[in-house]
Specification:
- By secondary structure, the chain is mostly helical.
- The chain is 46% helix and 0% strand.
- It is built from five helices and no strands.
- Helix 1 packs across helix 3 and helix 1 runs antiparallel to helix 5.
- The model has no long low-confidence stretch (mean pLDDT 86).
């Protein structure tokens, strides 16, 4: 018998990416402490770069920092295809994200 679920590592990524998506596009539904948790690069500097529309990656100094929700969320979200990074209904994002993770999996994040 097969179930239509993702492996544990993919489920972990899915939950992180769903959190980032909700902070970015549904900030009023999130606790106030998270509303400025993720910042787009073009809000930090005024010049054009290739990554101006990506989430800003804060500098880290340790392996512990690379596992933080802020860093991992930004880095995973920046690796999503542009079609998934845009605003859409949350239910549609969930379906498309699950399809993407089941097709591409970890290969797209390395």
């Amino acid at each position: 018998q097969t179930y239509n679920t993702l492996p544990i590592t993919h489920l972990h990524m899915q939950q992180i990416l769903l959190f980032v998506y909700n902070v970015m596009y549904n900030p009023n539904q999130m606790p106030e402490v998270f509303r400025d948790y993720f910042i787009v690069n073009n809000l930090i500097h005024n010049y054009e770069t290739r990554s101006q529309n990506k989430l800003h990656l804060h500098s880290i100094n340790s392996l512990y920092g690379s596992r933080s929700l802020r860093f991992k969320g930004c880095s995973l979200f920046n690796k999503l295809p542009l079609s998934l990074q845009g605003h859409m209904p949350t239910s549609q994002f969930k379906v498309e994200l699950k399809d993407f993770l089941s097709e591409e999996g970890l290969n797209s994040f390395q």
